[in-house]
User: Fold this.
Amino acid sequence: MTQTEQRQPISFAFLAQIILILNSFIMLYPVVVMVFSAFKTTGEIFEHPFALPDFTQVQNFARVLGETSMPTYFVNSIIVTGASIILILALGTMAGYAVARYESRTNTFVLLFFLAGLMLPLKLAVIPLFILLRDLNLLDSRWALIVTYTAIGLPSAVFIMAGFLRSLPAELEDAARIDGASEPRIMWSVMLPLARPPMAIAAIQNAVPIWNDFFFPLVFIQSDSAKTLPQGLTSFMGEYTTDWGMLFAGLTIAAAPITLLYIALSRQFIQGMTAGAVK
Amino acid sequence: MANVSIRNIRKSFGSVAIIKGVDVDIDDGEFVILVGPSGCGKSTLLRMIAGLEDITDGEIRIGPRVVNDVPPKDRDIAMVFQNYALYPHMTVADNMAFSLKLKGTPQAEKTKRVQDAAASLGLLPLLDRYPRQLSGGQRQRVAMGRAIVRDPQVFLFDEPLSNLDAKLRVQMRAEIKELHQRLKTTTVYVTHDQIEAMTMADKIVVMHDGIVEQIGAPLELYDRPANRFVAGFIGSPAMNFLDGVLTDGGLRLPSGAVLSLDGQPALPAGSKATYGVRPEHLQIVPAGTPGAIPAEVAVVEPTGSDTTVIAKAEGGNLTIVVRDRVALRPGEAVALQPVARQVHLFDERGQRVAGL
Assistant:
């Protein structure tokens, strides 16, 4: 009797573990194959696709970094993603703060306006966007991508930040106000340190698609000097032959920063910063 | 330290009037408690003193200065909130030093003031901890420490004890009172708990529905409530009320029984009136005693130090508190004899009738 009662939850947990382990295999498998292949020649990849490579064979990486424009693409990707995320977080947090913490008749309208942006796929508006950027003289520059990504990312950032900031107790603001803090100071010293988890969420959920985006660079960028990684990597795919080893080395380099960012920020996801603020 | 003067203060949210003209004078160094049921406007009034709510009409002075349009940080006040409102990402020391940091106080003085305040509240071992690592009582103390560090003219407390358990509440009550006796800073304290009000205050302001019902020393409110609301609000268990009509020298209940009055009420015979008697001023006497109210025991609640008896009588239940051990059973017929000297009388509008 007792045994069956105990066995059931254990077997459930066991099953859950099995599913999660299987899932991580499915998720990690392509990543592992990508990293392994980066250390092999094209011949080796087709001969022994799953074999452990010789990790001292770094000539693929050397060639990617030395003989191609990969370093330029990499720097461009960092600049475009970094600038977009900084703009999204700065503007999104300020807008979200205003919407969440100050009472105003226009608040609902402003929030709905941003929410409407969430429902509009900007890719549908690519032709007017192209014309707009052409008229602004931004085409074929990194700015074309930065302003586009910022516009795409802002609605969700405002939504996430407003939702979180609204949940912070008003007494914290009152206490800071009595302690002598100005309004910008309240935002900067009291509210924003508490808003790190949603900022991390907004950062990651925008950074990953921006880093990976292929569509807008394809439309807006022609010169090699402004290309980002996803677009640049396509030049490794030859019309007749492809150096798969180099391509995988490029992909590994391209995937590394965003993976590291994810690992670094995932702690913020879990951390409950408000614990202890109020009872 | 300073006195606080509140003159004809009004507050409306849109067309809804929350505070409808309140006058309160708080002397320098006085401990004043605003008490009343939820929604009576006491917290709003406190927040107006703090500068966290706009004043619709009227005037608030702290010391000689009208502060209506002075921002909170320039009012020289400190406030302790119900949920403490400690900054979760700062240590105890940083929480306490935050206001000094904003003022640009030199490091040495800042450290000294935080140390002094922490020492007086027994917080020294906790200075490096974060609020989430503290118990409820410790958080409460940090919130008080944050207020003390500023050395303000006025302390404001907004229901500071209502998140604590009963035992801790009694302990913190004594600590706050002791703190006030030591610092002698003018204090305005909001609570809905009339026991807190009775035990801590120099002066109680009873509020109800946006107006002040009565202002006075705790025992003054208890012994001479100005109206039926105060009489019912102050005291636990609450005062018993019996409605009737005044006769010569007594009050006739609808059943015809006449309760005697000690004195000559300033109200003509034949007027409707309410007879109020506190639970400890009702004596249980054998059934059938002349001049006593016939009743039937409903519930007996022994607490150890005294016993609360709830009895059914005409016009509703009556509560009696007796110090002696009583052998009463539910359903038993008794009679209740009010102590005539201790009876209160209220007119039809609920105002106290003089002459008793």
The radius of gyration of chain A is 24 Å. Residues 192 and 261 of chain A are 20 Å apart (CA to CA).
